[in-house]
Amino acid sequence: MAYSMVDVSGMSGVTLNELSQYAQTGLLNPAFGDSDEAIYYEKQELLRLQQILFCKEVGMEENEIGPMLRDDPQDVIRIMKQHRIEILEKALRLHGLIQTLDKTIAHLLGEQEMDEHELYIGFVDKGRHQLLNESGSNPVNNDVKRMQKEGVQKSDQELKSKEDYLDSQAKIDQVHLDLQQAIEDGLEPGSAKVQRIIDRHLEWIKGYYTPTAEIYRDLANLYVEHKNFRQMYDGYHPRLAEFLRDGMMVKAEHDLS
To answer: What confidence tens digit (pLDDT) does each residue in 211-250 have?
Structure first.
């Protein structure tokens, strides 16, 4: 099925001027035009536009995007998986910042003490990482050398290698697969078996920061409300986002409150 430029603009949120610019620079060429000089896009072009939007979402400059786009399905899948990791990392960092805000407010109200190093949790390493397998250099190791040179100590999480990070993603992927199976088995989010799976989800989150009940609930709602998370979870099961949210709400109420 072919879509006009107006159709594509409406479904993607990309303006007509941006689409025209992409066509002029060769970043996104239309599939064909008609005798009235109208241009149309087909599924392949829509997928390429999605790649462009994901690249922009993780902070790439427009002149960097072209070389990253791929037509080979396996390359596209690999890049999409890396975008998934980077968006998840971004969400986790934002929740780390929320926790820092909460602690700082409590400190200013005289409700709790706050160590100096806690003032900056969530601000470190907020830049974009290289795509995996795209270069032989290791951005994590480069950061370590830079920070050592400056005499600044990095936390264990900030020093994680790419291998550790991929292992972490394998663990959360298994959590999602187990939750998918729980849905198919007709289990409830508050059931003992599902809550044991949610325990693993919570432990995975704690590898990045220690959530309060409020932050864990906020994260649960983010999974449902954010379009990128919804797209990811829909890939497992159309009910997974809500199912995980409900399970996390139970966990927050009973174990984090």
So the answer is: 889 888 988 988 888 877 888 788 889 999 999 999 999 9
Domains contained in the chain, number: 2
Q: Do 83 and 191 fall within a single domain?
A: yes
Please give the full DSSP string across 231-257, using - where no structure is assigned: HHHHTT-TTHHHHHHHHHHHHIIIII-
Segment 150-156 long-range contacts (CB within 8 Å, at least 24 positions apart):
154/124, 155/124
Q: Rounded to an integer, what distance in angstroms lies between the CA atom of residue 172 and that of residue 234?
A: 15
**Nearest to residue 159, comparing CAs of 134, 179, 139?**
139
From 39, 68, 97, the end of a domain falls on 68
Instruction: Give mean pLDDT, residues 116-136.
Output: 53
223 and 143 part of one domain? yes
Q: In sequence order, what are the beta bridge partners of 103? A: none
- Which backbone phi and psi does 253 adopt, to 5 degrees? -65, -40
pTM of the model: 0.46
